[in-house]
Specification:
The chain is mainly α. Helices cover 58% and strands 3% of the residues. The chain has a three-stranded antiparallel β-sheet. Strand 2 and strand 3 form a beta hairpin. The chain is globular and about 60 Å long.
Length: 440
């Protein structure tokens, strides 16, 4: 049967017009508060412009963690005898660390203008707090009246360490510009620093005064003054320390026990240094194991504070001691790198003073424990127990971290856009003969 022919019928118009398959551009909607915008702002705020930030912050964090572990081990026995719990000393140190670490990061975002604005006020506030130790709020410990008790106990002298370094960084460049780097009138321009050191000395804390004096010398050394300007205060400082030792029977006993190889006052002046050395000797190379120290069982006074390095040597051995020394050497390297890349004299002076404070105090403490220095009563920074010392040390490191934003970029010897073959002479092997025109 034949099929009917197909007839072409006109197409009916579509009910809906054809649209492009491409999605229509969407209008940009504002980002919700607290969403991506906030996250990007936080990432930008804590983005460091220099690897020195990560080096200094990383070494500091590792040292604080190691210090918490060693404080837990070294303070367990004394905490149990005093409070009936093994962890009270550790909890105090841990709370100080958890308070100070966020503050350190917060200070690391401050601009230089902040320190210039508040340096003078901060120094006089800390001097006023130090004077309060001579009121009923003051507390005496170990023959030193250097503590305040306002519900919590803290040392105003630890604050003075930081404020002196910042004050000198702000004011020394102007003083040097006014009187010149070779004039002894520089020492007249830093008179507020003498007041701060004097009020600490009134509390009989000679060890802290020595550290303050070292901070001043460090700031002077990195300020660009002449070398003789540093030699004169060093001589005067040595004479002052000798005078303070002569008028104190306790200090003279410690110095004489240090000078005497065969210590006779075993139960008094020689007890602590001898047991510190015995703890180090007991540790050997690999140590007796974490938490297994015998010296901390009431044999070694201040085991979790001034003599924590002896506990580190006993429990972690010579390897643990070398790790601690390497950490402070790395801190010094980070400080020096920041000083070398600094554009502002404030950065050089403050960083130099803080470096002498932290690294110098660490090696003074280690020198006391191993017996190359007499007992001075200074803790090991970032490792010894003591909330105010830990907080102020971390705040000082936060100040140095804030300086990494103003570092100058490292000069490169060759630009990336410059081709690698430019300015290179061709060697005889690189020269090739051009083919002759008639050669096949």
């Amino acid at each position: 049967m034949a099929t009917p022919p197909r007839t072409s019928q006109p197409r009916r118009p579509s009910a809906t017009p054809r649209t492009s398959t491409r999605p229509a551009p969407q209008a940009s909607t504002p980002t919700r508060p607290g969403g991506l915008a906030t996250r990007f702002k936080l990432e930008k705020a804590f983005k460091a412009e220099s690897p020195n930030f990560y080096l200094l912050a990383g070494v500091t964090l590792f040292t604080v963690i190691l210090g918490l572990i060693m404080v837990l081990s070294a303070s367990a026995v004394d905490s149990f005898l005093q409070d009936g719990g093994f962890f009270s000393g550790f909890f105090k140190q841990a709370i100080a660390a958890f308070v100070a670490l966020p503050l350190m990061l917060g200070i690391s975002r401050l601009p230089l203008v902040f320190f210039r604005k508040w340096a003078n006020i901060a120094l006089f506030i800390t001097i006023g707090l130090q004077l309060l130790v001579f009121t009923p709020l003051g507390v005496e410990s170990g023959g030193n009246r250097n503590w305040l008790d306002v519900g919590i106990q803290f040392q105003p002298s630890e604050m003075i360490k930081l404020t002196i370094a910042v004050w000198l960084g702000v004011n020394l460049p102007a003083i040097i510009d006014r009187v010149g780097p070779y004039s002894f009138r520089i020492f007249g321009g830093i008179f507020p620093v003498y007041i701060a050191m004097f009020v600490v000395l009134l509390g009989q804390d000679l060890g802290t005064v020595i550290i303050l004096f070292a901070i001043v010398l460090g700031c002077l050394a990195f300020s660009g003054v002449a070398g003789r300007m540093i030699g004169v205060p060093m001589v005067l400082g040595a004479v002052g320390v000798l005078f303070m030792a002569l008028i104190s029977p306790n200090r003279m006993a410690r110095i004489m026990s240090f000078l005497n190889e065969n210590c006779t006052d075993y139960t008094n002046a020689c007890w602590q240094p001898l047991h510190g050395k015995w703890a180090l000797a007991n540790g050997g190379i690999f140590g007796v194991g974490l938490g297994q120290s015998k010296a901390k069982w009431s044999w070694l006074p201040a085991a979790d504070n001034d003599y924590i390095f002896a506990i580190i040597g006993e429990e972690l051995g010579m390897i643990g001691c070398m790790v601690v020394i390497a950490l402070f050497v790395t801190l010094a390297v980070a400080f020096v790198r920041i000083i070398r890349q600094a554009q502002d004299p404030l950065v050089r002076i403050v960083t130099g003073g803080i470096m002498i404070w932290i690294v110098g105090q660490a090696f003074v403490n280690i020198g006391v424990v191993v017996g190359v220095l007499p007992v001075l009563g200074v803790p090991l920074p970032l490792l010894s127990s003591g909330g105010s010392a830990l907080i102020m040390t971390l705040l000082a490191i936060g100040v140095v971290l804030s300086f990494t934003k103003d570092e100058k970029p490292i000069k490169r010897t060759r630009s990336r856009s410059q081709p690698r073959t430019q300015n290179r002479t061709k060697t005889p092997q690189a020269r090739t003969r051009q083919p002759q025109s008639g050669r096949s």
